[in-house]
Design brief:
- This protein is α+β, with helices and mostly antiparallel strands.
- The protein contains 8 helices and 8 strands.
- It is 50% helix and 21% strand.
- An 8-stranded antiparallel sheet has the order 3-2-1-4-8-5-6-7.
- The chain is rod-shaped and about 95 Å long.
Length: 256
């Protein structure tokens, strides 16, 4: 809209007062700027990201030429309104660029942190998970899972033996942080091994767990250095946590 306004006003003034005059350097740069904006609109509509970025760099250079290299006294009086409008537009655009760059840097930091976590799991097969008990029900704390719309909080419920296992790990408190690994390591506190795929539909409905099509049962075969026989069920969110599949074995420790 701004470009259309400037274009129509500029062309009107050119026709009215400068039709038979030689173009000034300022007028030449304005013509260049308008053409660059027209080109940018065309490439943006065609989703040509690389070309759009190249044109934006050209626009920045043209603005620099107008406000840094040109002499103010060489601008025609009839063009001063245009000069001032472009200056305000450039100032606003620069401010928006700073804001956008700040937000982009912040987002990239968050993405990089998430990427580092993913890469660490790929490399080491380890993660730190937080579990919280609310109104007598255990949940795994996965805010990204919910924010991405992958499911509801009912998908994050820990039931059918997983809840009583967390009672053990938390020593009957309402929160526990657990370090998990898909590889054996020295000093692990517990190990669970997959028994088979399956689920207890009636129990899930009774507990209010989100509807699922499958799950997997694990046996707590080692706990605090002793053999165990506790069986627990893990829902499909486990695949999200462990990169797309159910691990055959999971080693873990409670973190203080």
């Amino acid at each position: 809209m701004f470009v259309n306004l400037i274009t129509s006003k500029y062309n009107y003034e050119m026709d009215k007062e400068t039709k038979f005059k030689e173009e000034t350097p300022f007028e030449k740069e304005v013509q260049r700027l308008l053409q660059q904006y027209i080109n940018l609109e065309s490439t943006a509509l065609s989703n040509n990201t690389n070309e759009s970025l190249r044109i934006i760099q050209q626009i920045d250079k043209t603005y620099d030429t107008i406000f840094r290299d040109l002499h103010f006294h060489e601008i025609r009086e009839s063009d001063l309104w245009l000069y001032n409008n472009l200056k305000h537009a450039h100032k606003a655009r620069t401010g928006m660029n700073h804001t956008f760059n700040h937000l982009t840097d912040k987002l990239m930091d968050e993405l990089n942190e998430e990427k580092r976590e993913i890469e660490r799991f790929k490399r080491e097969g380890t993660k730190t998970l937080l579990f919280n008990k609310e109104s007598g029900i255990w949940f795994i704390d996965l805010p990204d899972f919910l924010e991405m719309g992958l499911g509801t909080k009912a998908d994050l419920m820990m039931v059918d033996g997983a809840d009583t296992f967390l009672d053990k790990l938390s020593k009957n408190t309402n929160s526990v942080k657990v370090f998990v690994s898909v590889h054996r390591y020295d000093g692990f506190e517990a190990r669970i091994s997959m028994i088979n795929k399956g689920m207890n539909t009636d129990l899930l409905v009774q507990k209010g767990h989100a509807p699922v099509d499958y799950g997997a049962y694990y046996k707590l075969d080692v706990f605090n250095g002793a053999q165990g026989d506790h069986v627990l069920w893990l829902c499909p969110v486990t695949e999200y946590v462990f990169g797309g599949s159910y691990p055959k074995m999971i080693w873990l420790n409670v973190m203080e």
